[in-house]
Amino acid sequence: MATFQSVETIVIKGTIKDEGGVLVTPTTSTKVTITDPNGTVVVNDSAVTFDAVGTFRYLYTPAASPVIGAYHVRIVGIDAGPRVSITDSQFFLTG
Description:
- By secondary structure, this protein is mainly β.
- The chain contains no helices and eight strands.
- The chain has one domain: Macroglobulin (MG2) domain (Immunoglobulin-like, Sandwich), CATH 2.60.40.
- The strands form two sheets. Strands 1-8-7-3-4 form a five-stranded mixed β-sheet, with no helix packed on it. A three-stranded antiparallel β-sheet has the order 2-6-5, with no helix packed on it.
- A hairpin with a 5-residue loop joins strand 3 and strand 4.
C-alpha cells in the first residue's frame, strides 16, 4: 500500500481494459470515490481525467486536518452495454 504525507497531492492512476485485455476508455463515465478510515466519503463519484485510451488519473488533495490511516479508493467505469469495471485500491495517509 502506498503511503503519503497529509500535505501531499495524491495522484491516483490506473487503466481500464476490456475482456481481451485491450485498453479502453468507457463511453458513459469513469468516476472515483474515496473513503477515509472512519468510513466517511471524502470524494463522491468525481470524474477522472483520461491521459490516453484506457489510462486515467485523479488528483486528490486531503483536507486541512485529514483523518490519518488507510483510505479506500473505488474506480467505476461504465460503458455501453452496460458493462461495468470496478477497481478497488488503498493508500495510507500519515501526519
